[in-house]
C-alpha cells in the first residue's frame, strides 16, 4: 500500500511501474483509524467501546504498523466526542445486521479531523489474540477474555457445517 498526496507522484509511479499487474486506486482521506466490535450477548447485540489506533512507526496504520507491537498504540475508548462515538457504534451494529453477521463482528472506520465517520469494512473473523483489538475493546467494557470467548462460542452455529 502506498499513499500519494498529489496526482504528479501517482502519475510518475504508474508510468515507471515495471512490475505490471493491476492497481487499486482510491482517494486518500486524512483521518484516524477506529474499530468497533459488536457482540451478541444474552440474545442482544451490544457494541464494545470503539478503539482508536495510533500509528507510531508510519504515517498511517499500514500492515507493518499493525503487525509490530511497537508500530502502534491503542486508545480505548477512542478519544472522540460522544456524538462521534455514538455514530460509530450505531454504524457498527447496522453493518452487523444488514450483512447478516452472526455472534460477533468488528467494523473499521476512518474519522476525519472534522469528525466525519466513514465506514470502511466489516470483519466477521477478527483476530482472537488476548491483546488484539476485540479483546482490548471487551476489556474496556469490563468483559474478561474468557467471558468474550464464551459469548462467542455461545452464538456459534453449526448449520451447514460439513467436515
From TrEMBL:
Entries under Gene3D superfamilies matching the protein: ATP-grasp fold, B domain
Domain ATP-grasp, residue spans: 77-154
Xref: Pfam families: Dala_Dala_lig_C
SUPFAM superfamilies reported for this sequence: Glutathione synthetase ATP-binding domain-like
Localization of this protein: Cytoplasm
Keywords: ATP-binding, Cell shape, Cytoplasm, Ligase, Nucleotide-binding, Peptidoglycan synthesis
Family affiliation: Belongs to the D-alanine--D-alanine ligase family.
Protein name according to UniProt: ATP-grasp domain-containing protein
Species name: Kitasatospora cystarginea
Amino acid at each position: 500500500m502506498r499513499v500519494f498526496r498529489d496526482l504528479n507522484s501517482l502519475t510518475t509511479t504508474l508510468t515507471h511501474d515495471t512490475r505490471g499487474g493491476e492497481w487499486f486506486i482510491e482517494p486518500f482521506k486524512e483521518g484516524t483509524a477506529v474499530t468497533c466490535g459488536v457482540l451478541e450477548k444474552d440474545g442482544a447485540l451490544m457494541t464494545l467501546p470503539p478503539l482508536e489506533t495510533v500509528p507510531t512507526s508510519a504515517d498511517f496504520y499500514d500492515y507493518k504498523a499493525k503487525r509490530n507491537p511497537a508500530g502502534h498504540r491503542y486508545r480505548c475508548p477512542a478519544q472522540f466526542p460522544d456524538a462521534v462515538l455514538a455514530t460509530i457504534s450505531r454504524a457498527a451494529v447496522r453493518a452487523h445486521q444488514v450483512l447478516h453477521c452472526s455472534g460477533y463482528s468488528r467494523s473499521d472506520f476512518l474519522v476525519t479531523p472534522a469528525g466525519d465517520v466513514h465506514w470502511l469494512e466489516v470483519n466477521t473473523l477478527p483476530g482472537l489474540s488476548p491483546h488484539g483489538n476485540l479483546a482490548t475493546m471487551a476489556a474496556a467494557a469490563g468483559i474478561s477474555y474468557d467471558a468474550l470467548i464464551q459469548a462467542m462460542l455461545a452464538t456459534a452455529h453449526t448449520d451447514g457445517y460439513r467436515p
